[in-house]
Automatic annotation (TrEMBL):
Keyword Signal among UniProt keywords: no
Pfam families, A to Z: Thioredoxin (PF00085), TPR_19 (PF14559), TPR_20 (PF14561)
Domain named Thioredoxin: residues: 6-113
Keywords from the UniProt entry: TPR repeat
This protein's name: Thioredoxin
Record keyword Magnesium present: no
Length: 287
């Protein structure tokens, strides 16, 4: 029907698996249509565009009523086009007519948002009862259900950091949509998770200090030393190394020197004397 991995054609034989069983995993939208009805032909490309836009957060299933009229009548369809949203084997919402793309997006979004919020609530409940593994699982499901909403990703990252799964938290943030990665709290969390991951994988401090003494432009050694010092709450030394990185190569590790300093500033607060001092030095370095 359409060149999309999220759009399928229904038949009497595959409807149970395609729609009813899959609706136990996530929302399934069934479009009841006829090639003889003009409004159906207007609606179809709008639905296909939205299926692609939502990227698998719902499945779109096309049911041709000219071929499977009996199946449509069993579902109470008596006008075309009709769109029904299935969840857990049941119809949970219905839309009639060739609605605009904006109306369709709102119709779909309210169910996906409800899905994400339900999973997020389950994550909070699991965390409150001390089941951190379950909390992470549910928070991950919420983040997948609403990848453009930074709230779910932020709390998932925090839970992973609590579990000391720094590599997983770091990888997760790198996989987020670019717009979400630019959220200030996500940027700070990303820096912290990256530091904690690097600190856990870095060579001993003495080895790094020798490497820097031998080659002051060894920015990786400086970054690793800064990460270790930050993990040890030695923010002064961490900021020294990050400032040197910003001075020597502002673009290193996607502006790791600047972003690392900003993350520490956020952690310590603007009233901290060290923050005022290093912010001035950073401004001088960048300008």
């Amino acid at each position: 029907m359409a060149n999309s991995p999220y759009v399928f054609d229904a038949t009497a034989e595959n409807f149970r698996v395609l729609v009813l069983e899959n609706s136990g995993k996530g929302p399934v939208l069934v479009n009841y249509w006829s090639p003889r009805a003009g409004p159906c032909l207007m609606l179809m490309p709008r639905l296909v565009r939205l299926a692609t836009e939502f990227g698998g957060r719902f499945l779109l299933v096309m049911l041709n009523t000219d071929e499977f009229g009996r199946l449509a009548r069993e579902h109470g369809v008596n006008s075309l086009p009709t769109v029904k949203l299935f969840r857990h084997g049941n119809v949970v919402d219905t839309l009639h007519g060739a609605e605009s793309e904006a109306v369709l997006r709102g119709f779909i979004s309210k169910h996906i948002d409800r899905e994400a919020n339900g999973k997020y609530t389950a994550a909070l409940q699991a965390w409150q009862r001390g089941d951190l593994d379950q909390a992470v699982t549910r928070a991950a499901e919420a983040a997948l259900a609403a990848p453009d909403d930074p709230r779910f990703a932020i709390d998932l990252v925090k839970l992973l950091i609590l579990q000391k799964r720094y590599s997983r938290a770091d990888d997760l943030m790198k996989s987020l949509p670019r717009e979400v990665r630019q959220h200030p709290e996500i940027r700070n969390l990303s820096v912290h998770a990256g530091f904690l991951r690097t600190a856990g994988e870095a060579p001993p401090v003495a080895t790094l200090e020798r490497a820097i003494a031998d080659n002051p432009d060894d920015l990786e050694a400086r970054y690793q030393l800064g990460a270790i010092k930050m993990a040890q709450d030695d923010y002064e030394t961490a900021m020294q190394q990050l400032l040197e990185i910003a001075r020597r190569d502002p673009a290193y590790r996607d502006q790791a020197g600047r972003d690392g300093l900003l993350a520490i500033f956020s952690l310590l607060g603007e009233d901290d004397e060290r923050v005022r001092h290093y912010r001035t030095l950073l401004d001088q370095t960048l300008h």
